[in-house]
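Hey, quick one: can you model this chain's 3D structure?
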Amino acid sequence: MNRFYLGCPIWSYKEWVGSFFPPRTPASDFLRMYSRKLTTVEGNTVFYSLPTEETVARWRQETPPTFRICPKVSRSISHEAHLENKRAETLLFVERMRGLGTRLGPTFLQLPPFFGPAQLPQLEAFLNYWPTDVRLAVEVRHSDFYREDHALTFNALLSQHNVARVMMDTRPIRIGSTEEQQMLQARERKPNLPLQIATPADFTFLRYIGHPRMEVNDPFLDTWSQQIGQWLKQEMTVYVFCHCPFEKHSPEICRALYQRVSALVPLPPLTWPQEPTDPGIQQLPLF
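Sure thing. Here's the predicted structure for all 287 residues.
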């Protein structure tokens, strides 16, 4: 049974053709090809628009049963009104995502920066009506949640519902010259919040925002592989998503992390070449 799921924020990226994807791979084959190489993906597109039943069915048909799509709760639920008033829309969202069958991984709720500790009763109401058989992770972006007192309260609420806290590591894109940092952060647009490692559920959900230069990622990946190995030895299920302001590097970062973790715990080999001569792992230019 696989307990380590690793992937990117997207599956459709034309610059992967010729490296991560075989040459001349058509866009219509991107998901099918992606799902044979990595084991999960963030479903960010559903944040903007609820897909049709036919689209969800196609995603299911194009991916193996062991693959996991982790949908992002629609912004009309998370960003536009009080969560306690979104029960009907939320249950419709969940029901649509159930069409993924075994491919449905943890859904994640990204709360807006203005959602602070004072709004926790809204989140509690949301968790009370969220179906208990569908895994959920919650990402907060208000800086007060990173204070010890509020973090403890927030994590305790998540623990009561076996809901994971989304951990986001943006440290790599805050390294380098001022010009480089500004460029990377302008492209990625992730909040500058401290990393807090928290495991209130029986699974973890990490978003790693990697640097285009692998030498910057190396020490972070070394540390994360140790942490992931420890979680796996504790029989937790681990979801990790490797982002990069230049997404052409994301599969490379995934592979580097997977190689490190597989040196610590038994994992099946990746299904695309890992030899140093493989052009897919050569260092690509930053610009």
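One thing worth noting: The first strand starts at residue 4 and ends at 8.
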